[in-house]
Description:
Mean pLDDT: 85
Number of domains: 1
Order of helices and strands: HHHH
Structural class: mainly alpha
Strand content: under 5%
Number of helices: 4
Distance between the termini: 12 Å
Shape: globular
Low-confidence stretches: none
Amino acid sequence: xxxxxxxxxxxxxxxxxxxxxxxxxxxxxxxxxxxxxxxxxxxxxxxxxxxxxxxxxxxxx
Length: 61
């Protein structure tokens, strides 16, 4: 999970590894597909993933 957040926040969106791509697909297939298809901007994907991570992080500690 931390690898996902690190990659998302580094703005390294041109080369998502297969692992990151799979995690994005599990979290929100719509956001992942919409980003790939150019329907949403990277900032929207990044904001959603960071919000999701912040919401679940209390359960990870």
